[in-house]
Amino acid sequence: MRVLVLNGPNLNRLGKREKQAYGSFTLQELEQELAEFAESEGFELICRQSNHEGELIDWIHGADDDAVSGIVLNAGAYTHTSIAIRDAIASVQVPVVEVHISNIHAREEFRHHSHIAPVAIGQIAGFGKDVYRLGLQSLLLRQQKG
């Protein structure tokens, strides 16, 4: 099993930006924890981050060709603005779990709407960095159930 973790704009700034909303861990620390989890569960993990919408779309499209079993996606602000990312998800057969470190529904009004949620298999928000592990676990359970 291969799983892709995609992080969108500004998530490379974890540990430096809005620590009250996002915590003090860095993206590198998060990716290391996820890699250890993947190794313990016996699946391959690929982590990528981009501040560019088109690059995220290309990675989503490529998931079909790369034999990826699932995607955990934190699209950052693109969650609320990108019809293109929504359409990319709808165009692939790979299940996508949408994650958010903060509870987007308890924040500013503009963050309450997700263009991704209708085409994702689920959304996990508000549990800090644990949302990624929870997203991975949900994909593992889905794979086990067939």
From TrEMBL:
The record marks 17 as: Transition state stabilizer. Its EC number is 4.2.1.10. One of its GO terms (biological process) is aromatic amino acid family biosynthetic process. The active site is at residues 22, 100. SUPFAM superfamilies: Type II 3-dehydroquinate dehydratase (SSF52304). It catalyses: 3-dehydroquinate = 3-dehydroshikimate + H2O. Pfam families: DHquinase_II. Pathway: Metabolic intermediate biosynthesis; chorismate biosynthesis; chorismate from D-erythrose 4-phosphate and phosphoenolpyruvate: step 3/7. Substrate binds at residues 74, 80, 87, 101-102, 111. Keywords: Amino-acid biosynthesis, Aromatic amino acid biosynthesis, Lyase. One of its GO terms (molecular function) is 3-dehydroquinate dehydratase activity. Homododecamer. PANTHER family: CATABOLIC 3-DEHYDROQUINASE. Catalyzes a trans-dehydration via an enolate intermediate. Belongs to the type-II 3-dehydroquinase family. This is 3-dehydroquinate dehydratase. It comes from Planococcus rifietoensis. The lineage of its organism: Bacteria, Bacillati, Bacillota, Bacilli, Bacillales.
